[in-house]
Design goal:
About 50% of the residues lie in helices and about 15% in strands. The chain is of the alpha/beta class. The radius of gyration is 18 Å and the shape is globular. It binds flavin-adenine dinucleotide (FAD).
Length: about 290
C-alpha cells in the first residue's frame, strides 16, 4: 500500500529502524522487528547509509521482510548524494522486484572534505527521477527547525514546496523536542501551498550521548524543560530512559490532541521503548480515528 493513502480518516503511527551495523549479529534486527510488528504500526521505514556499500542491500532485504514476513507496510530510505543515475535505477529496480511500494527520497549528509560523487544534487532531483521512471509512492524529509544549510526559513519552505511539486506524496519531519516548532512549521507549510500529509518525527531520548550527537548534526534546540530532565537524570540510566519515554509521550499526546496527521517514531531499534510509548498513546490514536470519521 502507498503510505499517502493511510492518512484518510486516521492518525498514522509509524516506526523507523536502521539495519544492523557490519559487526552486529544479523538476527538481532529480526528479534527487533518481531517485537515491533506486535504494535501493528501503519508502516516501518528502514534507513540507508548515504555512503552506500553493503548497507543498501540490507535496507532492501529488511524492507522486504517487514512487508512479506511480518505483514507490515514498509518504506525504504534512499539517499542519493553518492549515487550515479544507473546505481539509483539499480536500487529502485531491486525495490520494485521485492514488491516495495514506498521510497523515502533523501539527499543524505555531505561528507566534510570530499565532493559528492553522485549525479543528484538534491532530494528533489531524485524525486523527479523516481516519478519520471517508476510508480513508487515517494516520501521526503522536512525540518521544523529549518535544515542547517537552508540559510533561512523562507528558503527552506521554498525548497520543500519544490520537493512536493516534483512529486513528494508524504513528508516526515526531523526530530524536534519543542512542539511549537512543529505547529509553526506546519501552518507555514500549508500557507505555502504544501498540501501533502506531514508526519511528526519523534525521537525518545534515552541517553545523553545520543542527544548531543543529534543536536550537533541536526541543530535541534533543547528546551529548558528537557535540559532540566537531562541534567537531573544523566547519571542514572534507567531514570533517564523513563524520563525520555515520558517526555516523548507528552509530546505525542499534545500533537494528537492538536490533530497531527501522523507520528513517526524513531525507535533506535529499541522495541521496549517503542512498546512503552505505543501502550501509553494507543487509546489516544484510536479516539482520534473515531473522531475524524
Ligand atoms: P534536500 O531536500 O536536498 O535539502 C538539503 C538542503 O538543500 C536544504 O537546506 C534545502 O533547503 C536545500 N535544497 C533542497 N532542494 C534544493 C534545490 N533544488 N536547490 C537548492 N537548494 C535546495 N540520511 C541518510 O543518509 N540516510 C537515511 O536513511 C536518512 N533518513 C532520514 C529520515 C528523515 C525523516 C529525515 C528528516 C532525515 C533523514 N536523513 C537520512 C538525513 C538527511 O539525509 C539529511 O538531513 C540531509 O542533510 C538532507 O536531506 P534532504 O533529503 O532533506 O535534502
Amino acid at each position: 500500500m502507498k503510505t499517502a493513502e493511510l492518512f484518510e480518516n486516521k492518525t498514522v503511527f509509524s516506526l523507523e529502524v536502521f539495519p544492523p551495523k557490519p559487526d552486529a549479529e544479523e538476527s538481532v534486527i529480526y528479534d527487533t522487528l518481531e517485537e515491533l510488528s506486535d504494535i501493528s504500526p501503519d508502516f516501518i521505514s528502514v534507513t540507508y547509509g548515504a555512503g552506500g556499500g553493503n548497507n543498501g542491500c540490507k535496507t532492501i532485504q529488511i524492507a522486504s521482510d517487514i512487508k512479506h514476513r511480518y505483514g507490515v507496510e514498509s518504506v525504504a530510505h534512499l539517499p542519493c548524494i553518492e549515487l550515479k543515475r544507473e546505481q539509483a535505477a539499480e536500487i529502485l529496480d531491486s525495490l520494485q522486484a521485492h514488491g516495495i511500494e514506498n521510497v523515502l527520497a533523501l539527499r543524505g549528509d555531505r561528507r566534510e572534505g570530499s565532493a559528492p560523487a553522485g549525479d543528484f544534487r538534491h532530494a528533489s532531483d531524485l524525486i523527479s527521477f523516481i516519478k519520471e521512471n517508476y510508480d513508487f509512492n515517494v516520501l521526503a524529509a522536512c525540518y521544523p527547525e529549518v535544515h542547517p544549510e537552508s540559510g533561512s526559513a523562507v528558503n527552506d519552505l521554498k525548497w520543500l514546496r519544490y520537493k512536493a511539486e516534483c512529486g513528494a506524496d508524504h513528508l516526515i519531519t526531523q526530530l524536534f523536542l519543542d512542539n511549537r516548532y512543529f505547529y509553526d512549521f506546519y501552518e507555514k507549510a500549508r500557507i505555502a501551498g504544501i498540501g501533502v500529509p506531514i508526519e511528526a518525527g519523534i525521537m525518545p531520548v534515552t541517553n545523553k550521548r545520543q542527544i548531543e550527537r543529534m543536536v550537533k548534526l541536526c541543530g535541534v534546540e533543547l528546551p529548558k524543560k528537557f535540559v532540566r530532565v537531562l541534567e537531573k537524570y544523566e547519571h542514572n540510566e534507567s531514570a533517564l530512559r523513563d524520563a525520555g519515554i515520558a517526555y516523548a509521550i507528552d509530546q505525542i499526546t499534545d500533537l494528537i490532541a492538536e490533530g497531527v496527521d501522523g507520528i513517526h517514531l524513531y525507535t533506535m531499534n529499541n522495541p521496549y521503548v517503542a512498546h512503552r510509548i505505543f501502550d501509553a498513546v494507543e487509546s489516544l490514536i484510536a479516539v482520534s480515528v473515531s473522531a475524524s470519521v
